[in-house]
Amino acid sequence: RSVTGLYVDRHNRDERVSHADLSPNHTGCAASHDFVFANNLDTSRYRAHCRLLSSRKCRGNNGGGSQRRLGHPGVSGSQGKISQSKLQYHELMDSTGKGFAFRLRSYLGYPPVRDALPNTTHFALAALQYKSIVPQLITQNVDGLHHKALSGAWDEALMHERILQLHGTLHKVHCSFGHVTDRDTFQQMLSEANPQWKAFSDDLEATGSQPRTNPDGDVVLEGVSYNDFVVPNCPSCLLANRRNSVQKPEVIFFGESIPKEVKDKSFQIIDKCDRLFLLGTTLATFSAFRLLKHALELHKPVLLLNVGPTRADGLPGVEKLEIPSGLIMREVAKEVLGSDYSHDSVVQEMLRSGIIKPPPDDEDDLAPRAAG
Known about the structure:
Layout: E1 34-37, H1 43-53, H2 64-70, H3 89-93, H4 97-115, H5 120-130, E2 136-139, H6 145-150, H7 156-162, E3 163-165, E4 168-175, E5 180-182, H8 183-193, H9 195-207, H10 235-239, E6 247-251, H11 260-272, E7 276-279, H12 286-297, E8 302-305, E9 318-321, H13 325-337, H14 339-343, H15 345-350
Parallel strand pairs: 2-3, 7-8, 8-9
Antiparallel strand pairs: 1-2, 1-7, 4-5, 4-6
Keywords: Mitochondrion, NAD, Transferase
Family: Belongs to the sirtuin family. Class I subfamily.
Main location: mitochondrion
């Protein structure tokens, strides 16, 4: 029997570490927001998984407050509702003052996102995907950390096939006409057009005074004028004599629709699974919640692992366990993999990787993110 679904939401992030915190033998952190789909987990192993999750060894008294202290900020508040964004899609695409401000904050905030490394939950999921326990994953994350966790085992083509990024990715930029630019190339374009801001960014990195980075890759920056920040035109559009083609990170903002092909594929994955496992999500965005609704309409068993209130609370057919994913996912992976863990050096390395570091207590949900 197949088990669908593992949804890791940024709001339930219980592990985070910056690049500077890593020793040579460890990898660490950042954001997590995902749906995972497993096809090879039989009923007995699924129940054993549930018993492991609910065992005394794994239980903890983690409410919404402690969950936030342990995790990175997300798009939903402590009651499983969408936090209000300061930037709507139309404001970004209309080149408003808010749009230019976001682009500067995003320019300054991207280096920590680029350098972030997977946490233990990412690696546990990577091990399950690598062994085809979870052949498909749908992630709401835009940081690419699931790809990083699998990069030593899978090539880009296989990761593109097996990991669906529901809300896009920060590692690419596209213009109004659909031309795609690698994010590192776009960052270099911004640096060349804004030498004063490049110097400011370099100083932040050198002094370790990087402002707090939001989940969508922009920073919290107060009392700064954005009037002199220059956003270059799309190179492909310039070749076609088009100007003022707005470029934006390839993520879905509030008020923006998810591409039809992405939406369709997410439903197809639900259709093909036997069970849905939701990990670390409040299901605040409709794009996520409707996948749960679809699974329930098809009478698929659902297990939800999340600390704090969620949109699924009280729904018939949803079994909920309140445990931080970082406390148990590594051991869950070992239990599910059984002898495959002890006989596979790649899996062993994955399940040794990832370190834990609680983030500050004062993080707010400020990320601009689509509701669906």
